Amino acid sequence: MFDLRPYKTHGPRLSDYLPWAALIALGVILNKDGSFQRTMTVRGPDLDSSTPSDLMGTAARLNNALRRFGSGWCLHVEARRAAAPGYPDGVWPDALSWLIDEERRAVFEAAGARFESRYFLTLTWLPPEERQGKLESFLFEGAPDRRNDEPASDAANCHQHLDRFRQETDQVLALFETFAPEARWLSDEETLTYLHDCVSDRPHRVAVPSTPFHLDALLIDTPFVGGLSPQLGRNHLRIISVRSFVTETEPGLLDALNRLPVSYRWVTRFLPLDREDARRTTPRTRPSMPTSQCRTLAPTPCRRASRP
Predict the structure, then answer these.
(1) Spatial CA neighbour of 198 closest among 226, 222, 177
(2) Number of H helices, E strands in the chain
(3) What is 54-118 written as a DSSP string?
(4) How far is the C-alpha of 75 from the C-alpha of 39, rounded, in Å?
(5) Which pairing describes strands 20-25 and 28-31: parallel, antiparallel, or unpaired?
(6) C-alpha to C-alpha distances, 103 to 89, 107, 110, 114, nearest whole angstrom
(7) Of 38, 66, 83, 105, which has the fewest CB atoms closer than 10 Å, so is most exposed?
(8) Residue 205 to residue 192: CA distance in whole angstroms
(9) Alpha helix (H) ranges present in the chain?
(10) Bigger pLDDT: 304 or 209?
(11) Which element (helix H / strand E) includes 44?
(12) What is the pLDDT of residues 121-154, one digit of tens each?
């Protein structure tokens, strides 16, 4: 995208830090750096009714679905807890039905505030550089041979990368559907609504505009104050970051968060690396890591980071 910073007469705004540029396909966002992103909503098995062996099997299949990613990919896993909607109104044919529903409403409201959790997985992919794609055609069997092809236009390259991104992500969704009770891509409207809720204290449905471009400015409706006491609109933000990872985990380790009567967002960013990239990166980052985190990182060719 064209760099507009030399022409701006004001300081940086919140929209300047957001990566979203345009909605270019069903639920697919084109970011300012040329990457694609897509978000699915996921709901796993019920932890209270699942046995430990069931949860271990689900974790193994989840790991098998995510291990296919390498350099250039980024995964954001979010757990979002918000206040549940109130008791729904209804129209009843007689007074007796109305009285029964009113008793049910009283029981519901006597329980106090209710919250519900939703889970999202956002996949982001930055296409490789053109010279890297040409190098792959020489090194890997089955890669497209472009030595005798005419130079492709930027639009053709974009469509090729978009098709590849959609194919890769559709395969991931197919794997999620084998073990998750609910797994589907967000629609255009749901995608814009989800992104708007990430940067606003006034959640509401966002309709798809006729020209879904400049999303960074379109989705902003709340002032943001940074510094040591950040504030988004009327909400004061308190951010918690995990500094190191435990050496051993188990499925549902943080299930207690699903029972808290508070609103929060828990976001984990995962940056997978190819084997060669991991070998070059690990020696540089390991000296600055705690011992427990080094033990966790050593057996896998991946780099992990956490973001609230």
Answers:
(1) 222
(2) 9, 11
(3) HHHHHHHHHHHHHTT--TTEEEEEEEEEEEPP-PPP---SSHHHHHHHHHHHHHHHHT---EEEE
(4) 10
(5) antiparallel
(6) 13, 6, 11, 18
(7) 83
(8) 8
(9) 14-17, 52-66, 95-110, 130-139, 154-176, 188-198, 215-218, 275-285, 291-297
(10) 209
(11) none
(12) 999 999 987 545 544 554 455 555 444 454 455 6
Contacts of 64 (CB under 8 A, 6+ apart): 175
**What is the reported pTM?**
0.79
Residue showing tokens 């396909």: 25
Which residues are CB-neighbours of 6 under 8 A, at least 6 positions away? none
Q: Measuring CA to CA, which residue among 307, 302, 305 is closest to residue 245?
A: 305
Instruction: Count the Cβ atoms, other than its own, within 10 Å of residue 54.
Output: 15
Per-residue b/e over 29-41, b at no fewer than 16 CB within 10 Å? bbbeeebbbbbbb
C-alpha span between 40 and 173 (Å, rounded): 8
Tell the residue number behind the tokens 């190191």, with chain if given.
244
